[in-house]
């Protein structure tokens, strides 16, 4: 236990950007770019202004910006809302074995803390790597311990605490207490129930980011926490040898990852066997068991639509894409989309269930009214580490997400992030205000 504890402390406090593998640095930059783009798009979600005003009225107005808006709050609440907007449309990157989204908590916690403390881009990037590696291993510990599955907020809190504690200059002892506090204070975030009943909670990510930052603050003042599980778990042994951030997957559809292989299957069908959508009689999605939680054909809210495979397929067939613009009240009431969604049949396949979560696999079969059919191949989603997007594709995603929201100067953000280690982090945050 002592050896693992010291390794954990050393990793958090001594990681150096210059010593990281080039691939780790490349993926880290893309994770930052992707999270910021998702947050900017999410800053236009319904009711954000009302939520922020409620917190401001409690005396929480401050100088830490909520990206994509003119609002500023105290650091903790800024982190909360930046995590909320990053996760809102479910376009943020994730990690297969962790079964969730590290970046939506780690990037807001690290960037807001680094900005508050007037630190460098290099400081921020190092904290992001620390946060990802600690968060993902915390997720693996939780999965290994058994019990109800926790959503992303239940384990990203630990990574957010590690990132913030490093940036705050905490001692070895304080870092350990920050992680212990975050493990204890992290939201329960029951994952399956949050998928079955979608809401603004977003897997507890906002509260996880907030509680991780607060845990670091408390630890820096001498507040003591429990001994964290990471100090007696084998998952910590490869810290500094294997960088799990390299196994990040990226997304281009505004819906849960559990719908993406089926969407890629539809995209392939329309290329190989073009058909008018009115000619589709039935779509069968062979999938893993957990995805059946998303078998709702008539979502009543945007969040229910994000967690609806039938809606995602129907919306994609009508519009040819599925981004934030397609998640509108008008589309929820679109009868053509609803009719297509009702033609989707979800089928749990035990063989695919056995390969989840390491692999997220689906295949589609489509019957046409003229008697013809399409039988697609078994697919994993584009954007997985073994089938990655090009950097240019992710930059294109970013530019699409910020279009019409940020000042034109924001077009400089991708180039800035490529060399952020040579800039103050304030250079980046300055570009995140609206036009």
How would you describe this protein?
- The radius of gyration is 21 Å and the shape is globular.
- Strands 5, 6, 7, 8 and 9 form a 5-stranded mixed beta sheet that branches. It has a two-stranded antiparallel ribbon with strand order 1-2. Strands 3-4 form a two-stranded antiparallel sheet.
- It has 19 helices and 9 strands.
- By secondary structure, it is an alpha+beta fold.
- The termini are far apart.
- The model has no long low-confidence stretch (mean pLDDT 95).
- The protein has helices spanning 2-14, 22-42, 48-60, 75-88, 103-116, 121-145, 153-167, 172-185, 191-196, 205-220, 260-272, 302-306, 309-319, 329-332, 335-341, 350-354, 391-402, 413-418, 425-429, and strands at residues 61-65, 72-73, 94-95, 248-249, 280-287, 344-348, 361-368, 373-375, 379-380.
- It folds into 2 domains: 2-252 and 389-432, 2-methylcitrate dehydratase PrpD (Orthogonal Bundle), CATH 1.10.4100.10; 257-380, 60s Ribosomal Protein L30, Chain: A (2-Layer Sandwich), CATH 3.30.1330.
